[in-house]
């Protein structure tokens, strides 16, 4: 009876379950169960896996881009350091200016104002007579090289190049320009003693009065020279926070080697992207590891611009904007804001919220009260800022608005010390468009370094340029 009952139980089991062999393994059973799941469930899992793979691939790609940019920055910085250390021994080692295609940026456009006498020629701004009309081909090579080097913030190399040219005294008709460019470098760099010494030699050589020293024209004033008490070197970011901020980051890296306090200004940043956030994040972390004291100007405004591109639950190509926002909250010691952001970050990326760690080094937050009025129109003339770098889109909009109200549009460049090489190209394109619309633009009181750069770019074919009064 028991035997028949046993056989009957086996028969019932065989009818209710799939037939298996004694050699069936646990893996085979699991595989069979997996295959028996609804197709829709398996497709959902496969879709999620594919989505995660895509996010990981995009994140890795962005990280590789940031690594590549930083690697290029490091190589350029190492080259610059080597050039600075050997520049006194060999004057031929002058940066990478041979790689710059100067002719590619020259625009051959007929001079539009040659037969027109501007009403500004009798104004207070115009004290130099006729505007420049020298073509690029007539410009001495040392002038072009020094102008490009200075535009790219390689001031020390540009200074040495001009010093060597003055000492060689083989400049022909370009002697006055080269001497004036060197005086401008001393003025902008705050080197008053060198400026005064060269002024005496200038008076003897040209039998004319040299330009006078003006503290207001120095980016680094005499009270802020390296090593003086209260010195706070500053680096300003503007336009879009993206891969184009490498120039500013290189300057930050250079200043961090010789200073204990740095000021970073973010008030002129208009927008951000993931690569720019990643580059700035790494720089801020390095500066804190070095123990530098930081002054952050407009950091709260930058945080708002980063917040504007984030959305809780949406995984973008990388988490760097989130991480930079968290870093800024921590650096500003904003614990509540940090905790709120960390929760949103953890929800979005399904990770544990990062802990709040207060800053170890001294970090001061400031708001720039002068940025909104930097390009104000004073005395009827629009004034350009001290430095033009990054994307000058906002500046071009202001120039266009001003040109629509006043013709010719007389722009005061007396405060303008330097124009970044890349920004100069974009400025040229914008002014070319205004010129094609019949707008007459005039730059007055331009220093000789900027004039030389404008000649390299072909700017004198689009606008009238008046040198700074000696």
UniProtKB/TrEMBL annotation:
<dbReference type="Pfam" id="PF13466">
    <property type="entry name" value="STAS_2"/>
</dbReference>
<dbReference type="InterPro" id="IPR036513">
    <property type="entry name" value="STAS_dom_sf"/>
</dbReference>
<feature type="compositionally biased region" description="Polar residues">
    <location>
        <begin position="11"/>
        <end position="24"/>
    </location>
</feature>
<dbReference type="Pfam" id="PF01740">
    <property type="entry name" value="STAS"/>
</dbReference>
<dbReference type="InterPro" id="IPR058548">
    <property type="entry name" value="MlaB-like_STAS"/>
</dbReference>
<dbReference type="InterPro" id="IPR002645">
    <property type="entry name" value="STAS_dom"/>
</dbReference>
<feature type="domain" description="STAS">
    <location>
        <begin position="235"/>
        <end position="311"/>
    </location>
</feature>
<feature type="region of interest" description="Disordered">
    <location>
        <begin position="9"/>
        <end position="58"/>
    </location>
</feature>
<protein>
    <recommendedName>
        <fullName>STAS domain-containing protein</fullName>
    </recommendedName>
</protein>
């Amino acid at each position: 009876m028991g035997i028949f009952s046993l056989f009957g139980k086996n028969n019932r089991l065989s009818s209710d379950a799939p037939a298996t062999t004694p050699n069936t393994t646990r893996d085979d059973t699991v595989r069979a169960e997996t295959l028996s799941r609804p197709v829709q469930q398996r497709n959902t899992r496969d879709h999620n896996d594919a989505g995660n793979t895509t996010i990981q691939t995009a994140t890795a790609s962005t990280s590789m881009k940031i690594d590549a940019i930083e690697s290029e920055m490091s190589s350029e910085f190492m080259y610059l350091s080597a050039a600075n250390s050997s520049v006194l021994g060999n004057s031929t080692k002058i940066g990478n200016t041979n790689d710059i295609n100067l002719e590619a940026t020259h625009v051959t456009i007929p001079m539009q104002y040659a037969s027109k006498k501007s009403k500004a020629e009798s104004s207070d701004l115009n004290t130099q007579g006729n505007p420049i009309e020298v073509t690029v081909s007539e410009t001495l090579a040392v002038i072009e090289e020094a102008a490009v080097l200075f535009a790219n913030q390689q001031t020390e190399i540009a200074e040495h190049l001009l010093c060597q040219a003055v000492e060689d005294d083989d400049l022909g008709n370009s002697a006055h320009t080269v001497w004036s460019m060197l005086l401008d470098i001393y003025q902008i760099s705050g080197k008053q003693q060198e400026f005064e010494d060269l002024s005496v030699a200038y008076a003897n050589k040209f039998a004319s009065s040299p330009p006078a020293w003006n503290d207001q024209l120095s980016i680094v004033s005499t009270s802020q020279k390296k090593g003086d008490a209260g010195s706070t070197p500053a680096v300003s970011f503007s336009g879009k926070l993206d891969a184009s901020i490498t120039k500013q980051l290189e300057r930050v890296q250079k200043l961090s080697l010789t200073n204990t306090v740095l000021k970073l200004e973010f008030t002129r940043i208009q927008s951000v992207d993931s690569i720019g956030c990643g580059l700035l994040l790494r720089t801020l972390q390095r500066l804190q590891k070095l123990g530098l004291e930081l002054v952050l100007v407009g950091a709260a405004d930058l945080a708002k611009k980063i917040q504007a591109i984030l959305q809780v639950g949406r995984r973008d190509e990388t988490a760097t904007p989130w991480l930079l926002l968290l870093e800024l909250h921590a650096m500003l010691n904003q614990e509540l804001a940090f905790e709120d952001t960390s929760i949103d970050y953890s929800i979005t990326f399904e990770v544990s919220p990062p802990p709040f760690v207060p800053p170890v080094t001294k970090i001061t937050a400031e708001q720039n009260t002068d940025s909104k009025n930097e390009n104000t129109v004073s005395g009827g003339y629009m004034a350009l800022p001290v430095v033009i770098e990054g994307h000058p889109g906002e500046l071009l909009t202001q120039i266009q608005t001003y040109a629509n109200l006043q013709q010719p549009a007389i722009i005061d460049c007396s405060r303008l010390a330097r124009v970044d090489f890349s920004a100069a190209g974009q400025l040229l394109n914008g002014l070319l468009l205004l010129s094609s619309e019949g707008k007459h633009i005039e730059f007055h009181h331009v220093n000789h370094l900027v004039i030389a750069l404008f000649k390299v770019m072909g700017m004198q074919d689009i606008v009238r340029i008046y040198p700074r009064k000696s």
